[in-house]
From TrEMBL:
Organism expressing this protein natively: Flavobacterium swingsii
Residue ranges of domain Secretion system C-terminal sorting in the record: 875-948
Keyword list, A-Z: Signal
Signal peptide: 1-22
Source superkingdom: Bacteria
Name listed for the protein in its UniProt record: Por secretion system C-terminal sorting domain-containing protein
Amino acid sequence: MKKNLLLSLCAFLVFTYGNSQTTENQKLAENNSKTTASASVKTDRKTKILRKKHAKFLANSPFKKTLQLSKEDRKAAGLPPNKYYERQWELSINPATGNTEQTNVLQLQKQLDEERLTNRTPGDASDNNWVERGPTNVGGRTRVLLFDPNDATNKRVFAGAASGGLWVKTDITTTTAWTRVAGVPGNLNVSCITVDPNNSNIWYLGTGEQYTSGDAVGNGVYKTSDGGTTWVNVPVSYAGTTFTSGDLFLAGIFYVQDIIAWNNAGNTEIFIGVGSAIYGSASPNQWSGAEQAGLYKSVNGGTTWTRNQDANMVATASGGKNYYVIPNDLEKDALGNLWFSSTRTIFGTGGGRIYKSTNGTTWTLEETIANARRTELEPSSTNANKFYVLYQTNATVPAIGVTTDAFATAPTTITQPDDADTGIAATDFTRGQAFYDLMIECDPTNDAILYIGGIDLFRSTNSGGAWTQISKWSNNNNLAALTCSLVHADQHVMSFRPGASNEAVFGNDGGVFYASNLSSAGTSAVIPSRNASYNVTQFYSIGVAPTTNGMAGDNFVAGAQDNGSQMFLNAGAGAGASAQAQGGDGAYSFFDQNIVGTDRYRITNYVYNLSINLYNYATSTSTVINNATIDPTGNSYGDFICPMGLDSSLDILYSDYTTGSTYQIRRYADVKGPTITRTTLTNALLTGEPTAFRVSKYTTASTTLLVGCQNGRLLLVTNADGAAPTWTNITGASFVGSISDVEFGATENDIFVTFHNYGVVSVWYSANRGVTWQNKEGNFPNIPVKCILQNPLNPLEVIIGTDLGVWYTNTFSAASPTWNQSYNGMSDVKVTDLQVRNDNAVYAATYGRGVFSGVFTSAVLSVNENEITAGEFNVYPTVNNGNVTISSSKYFGSTKLNLFDMTGKNVYSNTISLDNSEQKINLGNLSSGNYILKISGNNFEATKKLIINN
């Protein structure tokens, strides 16, 4: 049977183009006009009620105060340094309940995985429709590292990313590339891993963590039985159920803090520490996994689980229910006994406890450290009585202790290391982040050699009596004089190379680093990064240069979490490296789209309106649009990752400039300089904080600006560049939630709007500039939508970026469009931004898997999928210089070859006799880029994606 296959190489969707744009726009307008007044009236009362509830939840958000804090204040309060998670929680809540419904994403992900086993839907073809673009040289937050126990060379390493899944590298001692491991979803937070002591091919992996205010939701436990090649989710039968008792107690295993496999007389027992979190502005308050938290055990390979509910495991008793201590760090001592240290529950209790078990069933409380919160335990590998303990105190600073009698007496305090950075206090090497970056390990052959990680890394050779700094996160102030390695900040994990304790790998917010000689690390740069193709970077936004700007190759810039603004300059096809254009947290990024004279610039920002910078490639000059010196209020005005919009025609940047409940927009005119005019815009119609901007490309003599707001209001501002802008409220009668994206379509009358929230209509469209609106939710599931684009070549085709990848429809004009996931080539990862280039190339920024790209096209390739099965023929290499080999396992006879570029142009044709042999084909002298090879013969057709690099 024949199907239309999505044609797209660089990463995207193939779209049919049967009718003219004029005809299809008319269809959209006609369908939009069918929204009747009576329907609008019926929904209006319900909408008003939901809007009031939504406003109340936002006003009472548990993060209302913390979001206003600077990074320094957050550290002092013991809060995660990155506000993005908190802000995303606010923007994503269901307006009816005040809850986020993150389990919807996990359930939908499982359903889609099952459907892919049996169904073929457009966008789910064997040819990848999305192409990964990198960065290949920048990593991301990593909490799990494991040397492959089945690798005789002890060079193969697995790494788990905070939101990028599981990865493997064949040789950690070299700069070879990482590859992603299938079976562990790419949007999951990988938090811990363990190996079966009785079968080194069986491993268990935990997901989710509560360190980031519970926002990194996991999906329980995964298991491999073939040494990490394939993975399956292991259901954990948890204690308790979802119930409401004033508050909502949502049942589930959302946060696996740690996991360990233990040999009990030849039988493997698996233990997991399960955490929980609370969201206090929901109605009722939402307690995620509160009743399920505790220590769980499985004695049958994860088939069934039981929780330890002994009396000494109770952390809090409330409402007739017991809430159990949360294991934070599971360990084995030199004799093989089990130990764990705890972290605080959501009631603020149970932290600093240390338990021991000799049989895996009975646990004794060996020590309670007063006023301790998150607690890490490090046993000696040679002395069963010696333990180090590293913990966060109630003053949010760390403390270190050591015991040589297995906690028979209280641990002796160790003086903590003093970081050379003058911005880090001598009494706090974590710089106020002991809840977040807290790492301790001791040498497996010499327990006097101790390693500590906070912002930087430290080494002691006398059990903490003295310390040597072995890494620095920057070269500022006193750090410049150190000769140790430059290693990314925020240390999370260390793993020694088996059989070589002077070598180790480290995981931090910048990815993976390998130490080749730890004993000389204090004076030598021996800890280089190992991030080649470890593409787990978390991007917020992306700006793409037009092809008309005179710059060679592809050029785009993207703002990343804690990895700055990454510039991809003259990028070739496929994944490539980037260079840091600006440090810290990257935020909204832009490329000028209107190339006139010396107009050839990019714009990057840090956070808020704090550090907005322009670089002009035409003149090789930099301009500071705003910083703390120019505008001290910019340090905290606007959102943490501050929404912005660029008018390329007039060189004006618009930015959220809200402070408290004063909602305003900052206008930066003449951004190229030398004189930049800064003006604050406000209006009575602006009743919520701006969350999305879009400048019309159709009006060039003045600015026509769309402003989407947190409270669901949509404003059209004309003459926004002038002294007296005109503000118009074009909010749809049934809009509820927080607007995530606003876009103009084929004309200035075509407007698309998406919403962050669960439980709302996420996609809206107007064909008449906001006079009336049509619900375009269709069959789209109940998950957040972050961005939207219309295919410039076919108005009926639209793509959206969501918390679960990219989805598309080619029936947008229908009253109820059919949405499908465009999965192939991109994992199930949050897509935060979509941008289309002037040549219809599309770029996607993801939160955990870097950047992807592709092309909107108008061509259709008809494929008879049932005739060609896997292995019957092959075309290789898929990345080539125009020379390929075609092989087949059986006789197909006369076969036509047609090669298409991404505009749909046929650039090569030939006819060959395809038999059970190999044939070498020269496709001619073609430009570097992405192509689709269509192969057709007697009763069969197929396509292959090729990347040509010349």
